């Protein structure tokens, strides 16, 4: 088969060309750092909700396959536990463990999965997206707060209230512009109604704008990411995120009987680069902030190679 017409090449190339364009725009200061927050708000508050609601508004509950969740999340939590066990129960090890397990499902994953596997693949991805942050960030919060409480007691200080923190994280991940439109769209679909054209068309146009703008923003952020001095430590986390996690998810999927397109989607999702939410934990707990930033950047730079490998292998197996 001609490389230019290979499905993996065809789906990956537009994604990373747009990321590269954003990187160049960031380096040349066409898009300045001061504008990133406003552009991110446009993506997360307007474009993503339109895309997610419209996609899920035509999906009935009986069409959903929840087995990919059983394949994906136990594997990610197992790897998180292995990272903490290997490096010791510290806030640093938990944050790096989250970096090794938290995929960039939204900014890169949505566009890539839709290009490569169509709407059916996107629905499988969105079932994961709907609870991704809630499960992984809540577990990460619990473990981090337990470690902080232990350290506070050891120093004779007063520990923060664990469940208040976890409750705040849970509320923030549910009342959020990503899971909320997914759930709302699903509930609307169960009514059997169709979106009127006067509503559907604007949602379609907004959703179409999401992919290119989001990918350009990834590149702009990458241009401002410092990698110097953190290559070796970051490389270990990137190897776990981009290569080991997809392997573990593949084994988990096989064990619960996930096959075909859902299997491909969950494995490719696991191979996506590190998601930005991990840095918020590094910042909140004031640990490994520069290393986390470098890991996110290196994971994204390595993604064209590692995703090509994983997607090519899944195409060959299926």
UniProtKB/TrEMBL annotation:
* Keyword Transmembrane in record: yes
Principal place of residence? membrane
- Gene Ontology cellular-component terms listed: membrane
Q: Which residues cross the membrane?
A: 6-26, 38-57, 69-87, 94-117, 123-148, 169-189, 209-227, 239-257, 263-282, 294-317
Cellular localization per UniProt: Membrane
- Enumerate the Gene Ontology biological process terms: transmembrane transport
Membrane-topology descriptor: Multi-pass membrane protein
Has keyword Nucleotide-binding? no
Alphabetic keyword roster = Cell membrane, Membrane, Transmembrane, Transmembrane helix, Transport
Know the name of this protein? AEC family transporter
């Amino acid at each position: 088969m001609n490389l230019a017409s290979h499905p993996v090449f065809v789906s990956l190339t537009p994604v990373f060309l747009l990321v590269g364009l954003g990187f160049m725009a960031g380096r040349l200061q066409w898009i300045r750092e001061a504008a990133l927050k406003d552009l991110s708000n446009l993506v997360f508050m307007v474009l993503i909700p339109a895309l997610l609601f419209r996609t899920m508004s035509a999906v009935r509950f009986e069409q959903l396959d929840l087995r990919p969740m059983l394949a994906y999340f136990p594997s990610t939590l197992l790897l998180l536990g292995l990272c903490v066990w290997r490096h010791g129960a510290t806030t640093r090890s938990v944050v790096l463990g989250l970096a090794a397990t938290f995929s960039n499902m939204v900014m890169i994953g949505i566009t890539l999965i839709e290009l490569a596997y169509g709407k059916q693949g996107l629905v499988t991805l969105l079932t994961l997206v709907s609870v991704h942050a809630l499960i992984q960030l809540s577990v990460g919060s619990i473990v981090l707060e337990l470690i902080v409480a232990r350290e506070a007691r050891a120093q004779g200080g007063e520990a923060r209230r664990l469940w208040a923190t976890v409750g705040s994280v849970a509320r923030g991940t549910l009342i959020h512009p990503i899971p909320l439109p997914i759930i709302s769209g699903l509930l609307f679909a169960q009514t059997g109604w169709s979106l009127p054209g006067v509503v559907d068309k604007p949602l379609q146009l907004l959703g179409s704008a999401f992919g290119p703008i989001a990918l350009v923003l990834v590149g702009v952020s990458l241009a401002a990411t410092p990698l110097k001095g953190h290559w070796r430590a970051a490389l270990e986390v990137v190897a776990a995120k981009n290569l080991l996690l997809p392997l573990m998810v593949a084994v988990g999927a096989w064990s619960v009987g996930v096959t075909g397109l859902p299997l491909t989607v969950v494995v490719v999702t696991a191979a996506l680069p590190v998601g930005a939410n991990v840095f918020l934990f590094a910042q909140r707990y004031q640990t490994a902030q520069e290393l986390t930033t470098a890991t996110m950047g290196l994971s994204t730079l390595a993604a064209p190679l590692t995703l090509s490998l994983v997607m090519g292998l899944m195409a060959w197996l299926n």
